[in-house]
Amino acid sequence: MESDRRPISKLKAKYTLFYALSLLVLALLFCADFWVIYTLIVAPPPDPGSMMKFVYLVMVSGFFILTAQGLLVFKRFIAILGRDTAAMEEMNQQIDKLSVMDDLTRVYNRYKFESVVARELENVRRYNSALSGIIFDIDDFKSLNESHGYRTGDKLLASLAQFVNSKLRNTDYVFRWRGGKFIILTPHTDLDKAAIVAEKLRKIVGHKLFGGKIRMTLSLGVVQGRAEDSMETFLHRLQSALTGAKTQGKDRVIVTRN
Q1: Domains in the chain: boundaries
Q2: For all residues of the chain together, what is the average pLDDT?
Q3: What is the crossing angle of helices 231-247 and 110-127, to 10°?
Q4: Which pLDDT value is given to residue 219?
Q5: Per the CATH hierarchy, to which homologous superfamily does domain 110-255 belong?
Q6: φ and ψ at 175, to 5 degrees?
Q7: pLDDT tens-place string over residues 164-194
Q8: Local confidence band at 239 (pLDDT 50, 70, 90 cut-offs)
Q9: What is the reported pTM?
Q10: Which of 90, 179, 182, 187 has the most CB within a 10 Å radius?
Q11: Band of the pLDDT at 211, cuts 50, 70, 90?
């Protein structure tokens, strides 16, 4: 960062020096012009034409210096405007990103889920593209909060979300649904492959110590999107699969094929 500032500082110094010198030259030209005109009025020479040529030369020189100053100011204005525009674009991107990200876990939120699942289900209908969903919930998360405190519970959620996200492909999506519940969308992935992903997540999460001392298990449900699915029916089948994993003993994967 410091190395980036040095060239900018040098450039500013050059601009300042040029501007100061140009102002000095303009002042000298003005004085010379005044002296010539004053001489022509007070003590006209035998050949005033040569002195008038000098006046014109001084005026043209001053015009070119003013033009150079104007171009310099315009260039600086455009540069400042460009920086402001870039800063505004970056700010808008940050705002857009924040609007679709969960504040705590830094994965996508439910608002983003609605737009992504609508698009991917449309791909299922139009192009017969495969889409699978994995829903998972931390087993006994309420007890973890009560035992270790809600602040620790929040840290566990954030750590889990980022850990799971790091184990997925760049084309997959992780969304926080509510509490300790998350949904993963895996485009171009059929049910059997999604089931393998879910089982892998169940195992690696179950063997990891979060915060160096807390072990968690997950219940997971897996379904594949169908051409007739709406967001509501897709979600309903996901929830049913998760309920099955919970009622059958937790720490397991339930794959729904109907």
Answers
A1: 2-99, 110-255
A2: 83
A3: 110
A4: 97
A5: Reverse transcriptase/Diguanylate cyclase domain (3.30.70.270)
A6: -125, 135
A7: 999 999 999 999 998 899 999 999 999 999 9
A8: very high
A9: 0.66
A10: 182
A11: confident
Single-letter amino acid code for the residue at 189:
T
Q: How many residues does the chain have?
A: 258
Cα separation, 25 vs 28, in Å, equals 5
Amino acid type, 65: I
Structure tokens at 215: 């072990």
The structure tokens listed for 142 are 């309420």
Q: What is the pLDDT of residues 92-134, one digit of tens each?
A: 555 555 579 999 999 999 999 999 999 999 999 999 999 999 9
Q: Which residue has the tokens 């449309």?
A: 122
What lies within 8 Å, CB to CB, of 200 at 6+ separation is 167
Place of tokens 């495969």: 130
